[in-house]
Amino acid sequence: MDKPEIDRPTGPAPTDLHSEDLTVGDGAEAVAGGNVTVHYVGVDYETGEQFDSSWDRGESITFPLNGLIQGWQEGIPGMKVGGRRQLVIPPDKAYGTSAALHPLGGKTLVFVIDLLDA
User: Fold this and answer.
1) For residue 56, how many other CB atoms are within 10 A of its CB?
2) Which terminus of the chain is more exposed, N or C, with fewer CB under 10 A?
3) At 97, is the secondary structure helix, strand, or coil?
4) Which intervals hold domain PPIase FKBP-type (predicted)?
5) How confident is the model at residue 1 (pLDDT cuts 50, 70, 90)?
6) Residue 114, strand partner residues
7) How far is the CA of 55 from the CAs of 40, 58, 98, in angstroms?
8) CATH code of the domain made up of 18-117
């Protein structure tokens, strides 16, 4: 797979986690609290500006789901290896509602995640 392009969303930001499979995988399934290896791109919902991308660093990343933001903990389980999923994550499931606590605080975030291993 190649790095995904994320179109700037339109309309008001959702207040609940929104998950959409762009490609359904056929490998092992990610489980809550498990380890995952992913490639991902993250953009700000309002501006469409990218704030992070494992693709740009040239390597995937592996981590335990329970160490990630709530939106990833809820949005990745059930995904299968080989799949690509878009998550739209409201501030309360991302980095909180205050920009004073985190630069991405108060922002709705859009991630496209490719699951490489689970």
Assistant:
1) 9
2) N
3) coil
4) 33-118
5) confident
6) 39, 84
7) 7, 5, 28
8) 3.10.50.40
Both tokens of residue 1?
Answer: 């797979």
Total residues belonging to the chain: 118
Residue 96 Ramachandran class (φ > 0 left, ψ -120 to 50 alpha, else beta):
left
39 by DSSP, 3-state: which?
strand
Query: With contact defined as beta carbons under 8 Å apart, do 95 and 65 qualify?
Result: no
Sort 53 into a burial class: Cβ within 10 Å, 0-12 / 13-18 / 19+: middle
8 half-sphere exposure, CB direction, 13 A CA radius: 4
Distance CA 103, CA 95 (A): 8
* Segment 60-90, tens digit of pLDDT: 999 999 999 999 999 999 999 999 999 999 9
Question: How far apart, in whole angstroms, are the C-alpha atoms of residue 73 and residue 20?
Answer: 15
Mean pLDDT across 97-112? 94
